[in-house]
Design a protein that fits this description.
Radius of gyration: 22 Å
CATH class of the largest domain: Mainly Alpha
Order of helices and strands: HEEEEHEEHH
Strand content: 5-15%
Distance between the termini: 55 Å
CATH superfamily of the largest domain: Ribosome-recycling factor
Number of domains: 2
Strand order of the largest sheet: 3-4-6-5
Shape: elongated
Structural class: alpha+beta
CATH architecture of the largest domain: Orthogonal Bundle
Number of helices: 4
Length: about 190
């Protein structure tokens, strides 16, 4: 029974780490005033009938603090990449010259910064809900073990351990959100 409890807690911990990794990936996509090639992660381009991530058909690089350049590997991909960026509605209009695409990021207004912070908070709340769902599943597994003969004290201790792990990850989510908010709100 002890190894089963240890396994349940380890699985919950692993799933919570994945929730944090997902949060980190989502927060990177939210721009904080500086050009970042990861802003375009998740953008897909129509490449000869199949949908392919933009970084698999072009080289995305930072030209300066407010400009991204996209150099397609094939000249006929300039138009599909521009259409994909416009369709993604990331708040930037692509400027293509037939060979390369430039994305000039406008400076963030105070209102836009607050919107981005709200977006971060929504992502953080999604992560917290995911972590709490993982906690709920782990506690359900422990209760099943209790029905199968696990002592009440051992079950209570295991539930406390799951709660401690949950609290640790909720605090980690909060730390990520505070850092991202500072990054967005700094001019």
């Amino acid at each position: 029974m002890v190894e089963e409890i240890t396994s349940i807690i380890a699985v919950a911990d692993d799933h919570m780490k994945k929730a944090i990794s997902h949060l980190e990936a989502e927060l990177v996509k939210i721009r904080a005033g500086k050009a970042n090639p990861q802003m375009l992660d998740g953008l897909v381009v129509d490449y000869y009938g199949s949908h392919v991530p933009i970084n698999q058909v072009a080289n995305v690089s930072v030209m300066d603090a407010r400009t991204l350049t996209i150099q397609p590997w094939e000249k006929n991909m300039v138009q599909p990449i521009e259409r994909a960026i416009i369709a993604a509605n990331i708040g930037v209009t692509p400027q293509g010259d037939g060979v390369m695409i430039r994305l000039s990021l406008p400076p963030l207004t105070e209102e836009r910064r607050k919107e981005l912070v709200k977006k971060c908070l929504v992502e953080g709340e999604h992560s917290k809900v995911t972590i709490r769902n993982i906690r709920r599943d782990a506690i359900e597994h422990i209760k099943k073990l209790q029905k199968n003969g696990l002592s009440e004290d051992a079950a209570k201790d295991a539930e406390d351990n799951v709660q401690e792990v949950t609290n640790k990850f909720i605090v980690l989510v909060e730390k990520h959100l505070v850092l991202k908010e500072k990054e967005i709100m700094s001019v």
